[in-house]
Write a structure and sequence with these properties.
mainly alpha; 210 residues; Protein Binding, DinI Protein, Chain A; two-stranded parallel sheet
Length: 210
Amino acid sequence: MTAVGRMAVRAAMLAMGVVLPAAAQQQPAQPLPSTIAGATETLPAAVVGIIDYQKILRDSKAAGSIRDQVEVRRKAYQEEISKQEQELREQDQALVKQRTVLSPEAFGTKRREFEQEVAEVQKNVQARRRQLDEVTAVALSEVREAIIEVVSQLAEAKGFNLVVPSSTVLVFSPRIDITQDVLQLLDERLPDVKVADALPAEPPQQQQQQ
């Protein structure tokens, strides 16, 4: 290309907002190093398996055992809360009746004590619910870990090097769906999971040696 031609090309690229680095302007593009270029040639073809992850969490025996335990505990908590709320209502009604016979100072003291008791009950209710959520999450994490182990085992046996949830795939062949196989093996390996009463207490921090 003549000097005039090169100048015309450069002017056209500048007009389009294309700016080349100085090195790129002076030297032709270098090929990729052989180590990088060769790496792409060694990648295996994807052999994909599909699982319905939500179905496994919904239908597995372990997940069902967790739901049953949580429901029983939740009902027991609700009955306890209802009983405490009824007691508080009765105390409130009794306090209203005492208002006419108590001095303002005495009534104010009793009202503050009652409000503190209400706040304490509410605090305990929130703590119990939070505790139940925490132990439920720990139990479900055990199920998820078992699912990963089962999927890894099946993937190796069936020759899959990639397993993805069906919720992320638009169309797939039922022949690569291993949901039922995963569910069967999971039920055999982990038929139930015990939901703990509370999370284990954290060990006290060790004092740093000076």
